[in-house]
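ARCHIVE CARD
Drawer: 12
Card no.: 0347
Subject: one protein chain, sequence and derived structure
Cross-reference: see card 0346
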Amino acid sequence: MKKRPGSMVLLCMLLVFSLAVFGGCGSTPAPSAPSAPSAPSAPAASSTPADTAPAAPSATDLATNTNPLNITFAGSSPGGVWYMVMGGVTETINKSFPKSSVTVVPGDGVSNLVRVAGGEAEIGMSHSAIAAAAIVGNDPFDKAYENVATVAALYPSHLQFVVTEKSGITSIRQIMENKMKVRLSVDAPGSTGELAFKRMINEYGFTYEDIQKWGGQVVFKNMGDSSDMLSDGLLDGMSTMTLYPASPIAEASINNKLVLMSIEPDIAAKLAEKYGYGTSVIPKNTYQFQAEEATSISSYTVICVPKDASEEIAYKVAKSITENLDYLKSVHVAMESLTADQLVKNLGAPLHSGAELYYKEKGILK
């Protein structure tokens, strides 16, 4: 097809115009209509600290920070050892950081960790074995609660399983091997003691269902009710996890000849490896009826915080407890031998970095 002369002229004119416009980019441009002012641009990330995460407080910053705390403490219902210990820990915070506000909410070793992990409480009481279960989702938890850390371990509770002499029971293994018809109270349902007893017999190779199948009975009563039932001849044995000597066991021995069961050392070691218990020994003569020492397992009462809690909170709680150890020793006999070195052992869950900072500052941790 033949091109028209007119179209060639138009093409040449456009080419000349475009060269004039783009060629002028390096020289003085032709004036243009003013544009609307643009919003100020954000400063470059590298030129201002506002765009970077705030630095974690240094040990010096935390050591000189005397601001009071405003926290929720998931603890215990009124009555019992934990209630006294909870009050003692609360008082240490107010001693070290006057005018602090500590709101106490009742709970137990399991529910307290759920609250702590969910950010509903800044600190909470639990057991080392329960904390170990929480972070991996073992029984009694139906999932892992990874947002759990610790700041201090306070004192141990020991699994104590006693039976009447007339029951004929001389060892835990005998119950299984002879399929004995026994009536046992295993502590309150879902308690730390009940969980420990269940795990213990499971490690031997039998269950609550087996005891019932053999014609026995398993009841879930707290240590006070268990003691009464044992005294009245309604039980052959009771188990609880608490300090020794436990007054409910001592009271039950007034009208009954009792025997304190010893856990086989290899069974205790397996329980420690699986669930984070400590292995312990209940010395002979702890009870009047006890002629020999007994091997057991233990779990420490621990103070927990969310893993993502501020370093300030964990540091200050650790500092409060450590600075007021003499006071805590006077709160309950359970803590009368507590030392600073023991605060960082048998925790069950990782130590919070803020608490770790404090303990290193004081030379408790290297």
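Annotation on reverse: Confidence is low (pLDDT under 50) at residues 1-51. The chain has 14 helices and ten strands.
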